[in-house]
Amino acid sequence: MSLPTRALRLSGSAVLSRTRTAAAAARSAPSVVPFLNQNKNFHSSPYFLTSKANQPSPGEFSRTDPKIKTTYPGDDSSELPSSTLSPTLPSFSLQGKVVVITGGARGLGLVMGQGIVHSGADLAIVDLNQEEASVQAKELVESFKKMHPNARPPKITTHQCDVSSETSVSSCVADILASHNNKIDGLVTSAGFVENMDAVNYPIDRVRKLWGVNVDGTYLFATEIARHLMERKAKGSMVFIGSMSGAIVNVPQPQAPYNASKAAVRHLAASFSVEWAKAGIRVNCISPGYMLTALTKKILDDKPDLKKQWTSLIPQGKMGSPEDLMGPVTFLLSDASSYVTGAELRVDGGYTVA
Ligand SMILES: NC(=O)c1ccc[n+]([C@@H]2O[C@H](COP(=O)([O-])OP(=O)(O)OC[C@H]3O[C@@H](n4cnc5c(N)ncnc54)[C@H](O)[C@@H]3O)[C@@H](O)[C@H]2O)c1
């Protein structure tokens, strides 16, 4: 490749510095610049000797006669059209995928659902609260249309289900498949709840109910969808919503059954990831720290001291917001994480490493 051709391919400032360097080298040390030695006429080439200071003038590489001058507008002008697209690695897109989210009518599940549809997927929202799910599904479609007026709006369906009931889960998954061309590619399990109560006073039937939603609900949904993926011989990605409470014990509030349930969710993700790896099904766990949802906000508004105590233990010095889960969940559902399985991604502002 000749130097002028090469220089043409460099950006403006690179052209200047390369041309100066080449000229200086030719004057002081010709033996180390073989290209310039072999091309004796190069210094008198119209590509090189143009301006007084041996610097190319704007646009001169586009002309064969250096005497022709063109005046360009000021430096701040640009010939490039403006673009509203953000360059993003295509593997992060969820385009063409159908994702199911349990507990998607509210809180973290709802906001993760928003991130999922804005990344290109169709969505099935599963919740006990069908009414809320329908209202939010319409809002999600409207917000998508506003932000992406030229894109195909996502298909969002809603399905009532009690995730702790085997029959409810299997008829719900059948209903989702009927609504989405018999195809599910991803699952996010966000249905779950926490209660703060001393273990010695916690009635076992209430503990079982909590475990039923947090643990059985995750198990039932994951296995039902794994069976579907295996029958279809399709790859899939599952993201279980655990909690940092699955790895540490929160203070000062007592919540032993909840902490145990989230440890179970984390280890279910790890166990399934190994069991289903050969089937092409990835399973990962996101463990959020203290997130500011409508629910936690209400609790903390009533107890400002508790909020101070919590944030004092978070290295980032603040609680997370539901939006902080949009990127992590999209990454784990997408092909960008195709070699990530059995992982726990803690989204906790550094709480668990401090
Ligand atoms: N908010 C936090 O700070 C935080 C932190 C760590 C982990 N988490 C976990 O994130 C998940 C979501 O929490 P959130 O704060 O968004 O709660 P949320 O109460 O705002 O939302 C939970 C949703 O799950 C639904 N749900 C509850 N029981 C159900 C059942 N049996 N079947 C189907 N749907 C059911 C509810 O109707 C609700 O829409 C939970 O698993 C929670 O443990 C939350």
TrEMBL record:
Alphabetical UniProt keywords: NADP, Oxidoreductase
Residue ranges of coiled coil: none
Chain residue ranges for the region called Disordered: 47-86
Feature: compositional bias, Polar residues: 47-57
Keyword Transcription regulation assigned: no
InterPro entries reported in the protein's UniProt record: NAD(P)-bd_dom_sf (IPR036291), Sc_DH/Rdtase_CS (IPR020904), SDR_fam (IPR002347)
One Pfam match: adh_short_C2
Residues of the signal peptide: none
Gene Ontology process terms (BP): mannitol metabolic process
GO molecular function: mannitol 2-dehydrogenase (NADP+) activity; oxidoreductase activity, acting on NAD(P)H, oxygen as acceptor
Family classification: Belongs to the short-chain dehydrogenases/reductases (SDR) family.
Protein known as: D-arabinitol 2-dehydrogenase
Organism from which the protein derives: Cladorrhinum samala
